[in-house]
Amino acid sequence: MATAAIEGCVVYVGSTDGNVYALGLDDGRPRWKFPTKMEFTAPAAVSDRGVFVGDDDGRFYCLEAESGNQRWYFDAEAEISGGPNFHGPNVLFGSQDGHLYCLDAATGKLVWKYNSEDQIRCMPTVVGDRALIAGCDGKLHVIDLKQGRQVADVPMGSPTGCTPAVLGDRVFVGTEGGALLAIDWRQAHTAWEYSTSGQAVRSSAAVSPEAVFVGSRDKQLHAVNPQNGKALWRFNTGGQVDCSPVIIGPWVVFGSEDGRLYAVDRKSGQEAWRYDTGGAIVASPAVADGRLVIGTEDGDLFCFGPPEQFPKDAEHNE
User: Does 311 share its domain with 163?
Assistant: First the structure.
């Protein structure tokens, strides 16, 4: 369920079997694994030769990227569902205890923590000296990262665990109420709202100047005009789309709970290719060094290369 991190030709990913794995990007061979008694559903992140990841019991780890040895850990008070982010020498993560934590990345010591009114399940989005947090309290929080205090919030009308995507002064985030919102985070107001027919959005958006792409539990990937919130196209799958899409060249790539990984032309919404993994996909694709890595709920991790290297059983639409 966790999205992988790729750094230095190594894939780092947590699993619900209680392990964090380091695998070779080129061959998938294990480099090391770090065993615990808890599950990992949150994405990992890599910085300064450290792997940072939180578990379902609220313990946040920093591991040596080379060896998997533990540098330090910090205990939050509830499950960690979202990935970490970085600001200067600090690492940031949210917890279902309602706090955004800021720790010294080198030592794990608490720098500050911000208390919201409900769970934080998203990864904090960092823009300059601000963190943008979309919370289960139904608000977008704008946090001053130097002081650890809120400078603004914007009601979203419904809870969310989605990570905000930023393009200029606008934040794009979906909600459990079936809406994709565009919020001007500097002026602290909603610019527009797009409906996904009342079905929850648990997919974090991918954004480009021409379109916002987001999955929904209505089994569709939606492409929306970022300026006015008008639908550009919709792409149907056979399952809920909780996976967060990524933009790769002419495509937007994402997985569905129907077990398929899809590549769709980002301008037309026409399918370019698909691959049937055989297991529901909730994790999002990780892309680096000409490779795409994604896991399934069956416990399989797949690595794809350029189109000429795709498995022969992939289904292509030329």
Answer: yes
